[in-house]
Structures are given as C-alpha cells and as structure tokens.
Amino acid sequence: MKKLHFIMSMCCVITLFSCNEDDNYETISTDTYPNVTNTFGTNLDLNNLYNYANQNIPSYITKDNSTENTINDKIATLGRVLFYDKNLSSNNTIACASCHKQEFAFSDTSVSSVGVNGSTGRHSMRLINTRFATETRFFWDERALNLEQQTTMPIKDHGEMGYSGLNGDLSFDDLLIKLGAINYYKELFKFSYGTEEISEVKIQKALAQFIRSIQSFDSKYDTGRANAPNDGAPFNNFTAQENQGKNLFLAPPVFNSAGSRTGGGLGCAGCHRAPEFDIDPASKNNGIIGTIAQTGIDVTNTKAPSLRNLMRMDGVLNGPMMHTGGITTLQAAVGHYGTINIAPGNNNLDPRLTPNGIGQQLNLTQAEVNAVIAFLKTLSGTDVYTNMKWSNPFPN
C-alpha cells in the first residue's frame, strides 16, 4: 500500500508539473511545431520561453495599466514575432520594429519613419515602460483608447503598413488571410491560444503584451530610489549636481504676477510624474504646435512617452524629441520650457505653463540647466538595448 501510495503521489506531482498551461515545464517536441523550428531555429525556443510575465518590478513602481490584458509568456512570445514580422505590411518591407528599434529604446533616429507609402506624420515615440503609466491612450494625440487598439492602427494606415482597405489597399481581413497561410503562425497561434484561428483581437492582445513587457528599471536613478524613502529625499549614489537637478525637476516653481519665476523648482514633475516619469493624463500640449511637414499648426498633441531612456549610456540621444522631432538636445528641451510663448491659434496649451495666463519665464541659470540635464541622464539603463527577449527572432 505504501508503494502504491507513493506511485499515485508521484503521478499527481508529474501531472501538476507538466500540464499547467501557465508554466513552461511540459517538454515540446520539435515535431509538434516544425515550422517554428525551421523558421526561427534557436532564436525561438518554445521549451524555454523568456520571462515576460514575472519580471522584477521595483516596489516603488505602482502604476500598472496591464490588468485588462495580463502578460502571459506564450502570448507575449507571439507578440514578439508579430512585432518584428514584415509580413504585417502590404509589401513585406515594414514591421513595427522598423519604426521602433531596440537599439534606440524602441524609437527611431529619423524625424519621421518610412512606411510603405510615405512617411509618418509624427516622430515615432519610444516604447519604454508603457505598462507603467496612468495614461492608457496612445499616439501623441491620444486617438487610440488603449495600447491594444493602437497596435493595429499603423497596420491599417495607408502610409505606414498599407492594409487600410482604402485607395486601392488591401484590407485588414486580407492580412488575416495572409497570416493564416503562413505555417509558423498556424503553430504559434495554436501554441499561444490553443487554436490556429487568427483574429485582430488576438493580434492586438499579443502585440500589447509584448510591448508592455519592455521595461527599464536598471538606471542610476533606480539604484538611488531603491535606497531612499521617497523621490524627494537625497539619493546617496547621486552627485550633488544630480540631486540638485532632481530637486529642480520635482519642485513646483514660484511665479510672480508677470509669470516670471522667483523661486522653487521647474515643475517638470507636474506632467512627468516620478518615479515612473509617465505623462499626467490631464496634460495638454506643451507649446510645440508645429508639424513635420511644416504646414499649419497641430495643437492636439497631449501625450508623451516616459522620460526614461532619453539617451544611451554613451550620451547619444535615442533620436530627436517631441512629436515634430525638432528638438535634438536635452539643453534645447529644457530651454523650451524656460520661455513659453503663447502662439496664435494655440487654444490647448497646458495651463501649468501659463501662470496668471502668461507664458512662463523660468529664468534658468546655466547651472540649473546643467543640473536638470545631469538628472535626466540618470534615468537611462542598459538592459533594454540588448536583452534578447525583446530582440528580433527572425534570423538575419
């Protein structure tokens, strides 16, 4: 009886160990998904999935917009393939990763990104820590209600990826048929969702999970914040200049009746909120209302990416900043907020930039500018640029 009881107990353990769909313990034969193996080789090992679902998140990071689409390793793996697959464009030349490149913190160094029928109307924003933000809307003008909706909008855009169904373009349904005929997608959708059926909702869910998994918490700032009681306390790993810059970033300014700063900080954190450095959902435009085409004005841009990983550790920016791509140095970015001019026609300027109805004058000293720049540099890590879980799974 003891022997039988032991055998039954072991069977229960083996069953639990191999059959839980949320775990990756069950060994998958290469014969089960031969087209995945033939296409991706060792770049995609379904027996050893990367950890997307349970990455380490610092305790001081509290914002999380993934609750409606919880990250799953299998589905995020499918999202990785979709993100890098040029088959998602009408002429097989453009992928999501064409405009959001890992080596530039998932942004683009070009002012506008090249699509199948032209260029993007706005600069491609960085996709860092999109999960850790209160603002759920996407694109600079927030026209997508959430990341899931956003993921297929570039695919349906005539200029970007070409499946608009308009102006002679094929439709998104045509893309679904196209993907359904690709053998590795039959296998990956079955692996991820339990069925070969491909739908827009499944594509959106997978892409959003992969994008939300892209996180960066290995910066000098994070090292300091982990050992501090709050954002405002001095960080013991910061230089005096970096701590000064942090204080200036966090503290609100004091203005006189003419809109001129007489004390306090710069108030950056009013819109870019520490420690996630996400954009306040209530933010309006920041005074930059130009367009890449330099025709007319655009006052609808009210969203911004996290300020994390503005630049690499070598000091090189991850592309130009703002929706126009018109600001190319941190000094120019800080300087823009130093003197806000209320341009004719700008009826959507953030009121925090117009104390007493007048464009703010921060009266920055060079030492203050240098300190804020030094602080912004502490928000960059290294892992996001080289981690294989976010890399291109297709062989070169």
UniProtKB/TrEMBL annotation:
Q: Does the keyword Metal-binding apply?
A: yes
Q: Where found? A: Cell envelope
Where mainly found?
Answer: other
InterPro entries xrefs: Cyt_c-like_dom, Cyt_c-like_dom_sf, Cytochrome_c_Peroxidase/MauG, Di-haem_cyt_c_peroxidsae
UniProt-recorded Gene Ontology molecular function terms? peroxidase activity
**Cytochrome c domain boundaries:** 240-380
Keywords, A to Z, come to: Heme, Iron, Metal-binding, Oxidoreductase, Peroxidase, Signal
Q: Does the keyword Signal apply?
A: yes
What is this protein's record name?
Answer: Cytochrome-c peroxidase
Annotated source species:
Flavobacterium ponti
